[in-house]
Amino acid sequence: MLSFLSTEGSSASSRELSRRVDDQDDILLDAYSQTVTGVAERVSPAVVHLNVRKPVPQNRRQQRQPGGRDSGSGSGFIISSDGFIVTNSHVVNGATSIEASLPDGRLFKAEVVGDDPATDIAVVKIDGNNLASMAFGESDRLRVGQIAIAIGNPYGFQYSLTAGVVSALGRTLRSQSGRLIDDVIQTDAALNPGNSGGPLVDSFGNVIGVNTAVILPAQGICFAVASNLAKFVVGKLILEGRVRRGYIGIAAQTVPLPPKWIQTLELPTS
User: Active-site residue 196, yes or no?
Assistant: First the structure.
């Protein structure tokens, strides 16, 4: 009898423990969902869809009407209430016209303030007032495994959100200009064409990166320029229109040799 009671008590304890674990999982899942939905509600009004027109490349002009234009799209996010927008350089570089569409349906003509192909960061400006905006977070404080949320316009589907985690920090990525971008975040938050230039945010809605690239056909390997680097570049672009960088090189020129050198080396005088 004692053995039977002990077994019954053990089974009851196991069921109670299992119920508590299930309840805890539900609570955690709900907290995660609330975090993501809360971030979406706070930051989505500041995410814009950019419709960009560029000249048709020379090798494709024969397939188009004279004067034809290429049309593409990307994402961006507002960082000031008066309309400064951060996006990718490859989205707006060489654009003949840019149209910014806000979540509330308003359309604005955008002008390029500056772009930096070396980091794939650009700033455009729209004429607006009291616009919703986003703030940069501190990417130096990021930790692998924390929540990363990407918002953008993949394939023209406006204002799509994907969530994942910070997969790695300090990655190196080669920009389209050929330079290496050193401070890059790797995430598994799904990115697709059209997400370029959109924000990668943390659980507080702060921008921790600017979405820039994916590795195809791999899945779950996506990259964003870290916010601290982006913030520095954006400041330079707004103030000066470009980023000034030091460089080291070699310059060559022809100079006449002294007569003594010619005589010593027995060089022809002609």
Answer: yes
Strand pairing report for 97-101 and 47-55 = antiparallel
Domain annotation covers residue 104: yes
The closest of 154, 183, 163 to 171, measured between CA atoms, is 183
Which of 73, 196, 202, 227 is the catalytic position? 196
Averaged over successive runs of 10 residues, the pLDDT of the chain (270 residues) comes to: 48 64 67 90 95 78 53 92 96 94 94 95 95 96 96 86 96 88 94 91 96 82 96 96 84 83 80
Q: Before 217, cis peptide (omega within 30)?
A: yes
For residue 105, give its domain range.
46-125
φ, ψ at 154 (rounded to 5°): -65, 130
Q: Is residue 259 part of a domain?
A: no
- Closest alpha carbon to 103 in 147, 43, 173: 43
Residue 97 a catalytic site member: no
Which domain CATH number covers 113? 2.40.10.10
Report the DSSP beta bridge partners of residue 50. 74, 100
* 44 phi/psi in degrees, rounded to 5: -55, -35
CA distance 48 to 46: 6
Q: Do residues 112 and 8 lie in contact, with contact meaning Cβ atoms separated by under 8 Å?
A: no
**Is residue 26, in this structure, part of any structural domain at all?**
no
Please say if 120 is a catalytic residue. yes
* Number of domains forming the structure of the chain: 1
Residue tagged active-site, from 115, 116, 120, 202: 120
